Amino acid sequence: MKFVDELKWRGMIHSIMPGTEEQLDKEMTTAYLGIDPTADSLHIGHLCGVMMLRHFQRCGHKPIALVGGATGMIGDPSGKSAERNLLDETTLRHNQEAIKAQLARFLDFESDAPNRAELVNNYDWMKDYGFLDFARDIGKHITVNYMMAKDSVKKRLSGESRDGLSFTEFTYQLLQGYDFLNLYQTMGCKLQLGGSDQWGNITTGTELIRRKTGGEAFALTCPLITKPDGTKFGKTEQGNVWLDARYTSPYRFYQFWLNVSDEEAEKYLKIFTFLTREEIEALVEQHKADPGMRPLQKKLAEEVTVMVHGREAYDAAVEASRILFGNNTAEALKALDEKMLLEVLDGVPSASVSAAEVAEGIPLLELLAVKTDMFPSKSEARKMVQQGGFSLNKIKLTDPQAVISSDALLNGKYLLLQKGKKNYKLVIAE
After folding, report:
1. Closest listed residue to residue 364, CA positions, set 417, 407, 285, 308
2. DSSP readout, 85-114?
3. Catalytic residue among 20, 29, 176, 273
4. Which of 136, 232, 277, 288 is catalytic?
5. Which pLDDT band holds residue 81 (cuts at 50, 70, 90)?
6. Per the residue annotation, which of 80, 100, 270, 298 is the catalytic one?
7. DSSP of 153-188, one letter per residue?
8. Catalytic residue check, 236
9. Contacts of 319 (CB under 8 A, 6+ apart)
10. Among this protein's residues, is 55 annotated catalytic?
11. Is-catalytic flag, 213?
């Protein structure tokens, strides 16, 4: 399996420097990819780069994940309109360890194979590098004209940002270029991988290596992934979709992939899974035959959730979805503990009622039209109940005279109201 060929059919190459394929064909090659350490978890916006590293290792080459501890203290102007917050060393070290633990699900760091993955932090070689030494050793090799020509710099200087570009950020490409030079000299690293917005920074590194050592280095970038409307991939109303279950539950993670469009699902199967071309083509044909069954989305959600959270978490997410969207799932809903119940119902509108009132018993129509706004009036609620269009805790109720008491509460605290197929409200007895 050839790395470039594999990435090409998956739609994962945006730009590639001439000579890169020949270098990879010639010998086991070391490549690195930089990762922003501003949080103690990766999010799915990082996944394309991580998948590139994994493909690289699977093709017999050596991947390096570089945590940008030093550059994280400065801020990369690429693709940003404002300077970002800077981090202290304690936070950086914590984030580095958390990120490595997540990367270990994708990369082999532990074996004695010659192409085992390694994790480095550029803070380790930058922290004691004096400004005068850096200016003399590195700064003199790259002209200001060269740096000004980069798109990331030009955009920030053209007035797209009210704050312009600080000198700190302007030096970013020099620092990233030095990372490449350092890894080239100390670890024989000849290739840098990254998103397409990093092309300017990466080629500064290849140019610095050429001018400083006379050696040759290479660059390969993947496209930046956006949603069909052009907005940032991986962003939802709740914010980023994180790989850490503390920030994005496996259920919500699974639901993100399950709810992408048909067009996105086919594209994401190539980028975010290791299914073969034949397997994906077969799924596409299956989807065309019966789009309603959504085989593309289901397989995508399974592959990515298992890869990130494991089979057990995936099974629990599927069960949770079945409870919420399936039929005859009252017993399964009742069996959920409070944590999983709230994850399943994350995003469902909620209302509060008095626990004391529930203990005394609340007439169903009053609960639906007065205590909550599930229905605009008691008459409309009565009509829907009599027609069999209302369920309480996934059990259909047809008696409008019913009284709801404490024995109906899930986990002694919750009621799940359902109008029609998909209109839910979570009632919390407080």
Report:
1. 417
2. PP--HHHHHHHHHHHHHHHTTTS--SS--T
3. 176
4. 232
5. very low
6. 80
7. HHHHHTTSSTT---HHHHTHHHHHHHHHHHHHHHH-
8. yes
9. 332
10. no
11. no
The predicted pLDDT at position 330 comes to: 84
Interval 384-394 mean pLDDT: 91
The residue from 20, 40, 46, 61 that is catalytic is 46
Q: Which range among 85-89, 138-142, 401-405 shows the weakest confidence by mean pLDDT?
A: 85-89
Question: Which residue type is seen at 264?
Answer: E
**Is residue 325 a contact partner of residue 255, using CB atoms and an 8 Å limit?**
no
Q: pTM for the complete prediction? A: 0.81
Q: Is 46 a catalytic residue?
A: yes
- Catalytic residue status for 185: no
- CA 156, 89, 199, 79 dihedral sign is negative
Sequence-distant contacts of 157-165: CB under 8 A, at least 24 apart: 160/81, 161/81, 161/82, 163/82, 163/83, 165/77
Work out the average pLDDT over 103-109.
96
Q: What is the pLDDT of residues 152-193, one digit of tens each?
A: 787 777 765 566 777 877 888 888 999 999 999 999 999 999
Query: Burial, 292: exposed, middle or buried (Cβ in 10 Å; 0-12, 13-18, 19+)?
Result: exposed
- Active-site residue identified among 93, 116, 211, 235: 235
Known catalytic membership, residue 43: yes
* Unique residue bearing structure tokens 């989807």: 287
Instruction: State phi, psi for 81 to the nearest 5 degrees.
Output: -105, -5
Between 346 and 310, residue with greater pLDDT: 310
In this predicted structure, the answer to whether residue 337 has a pLDDT above a threshold of 90 is no
* Residue 102 annotated to the active site: no
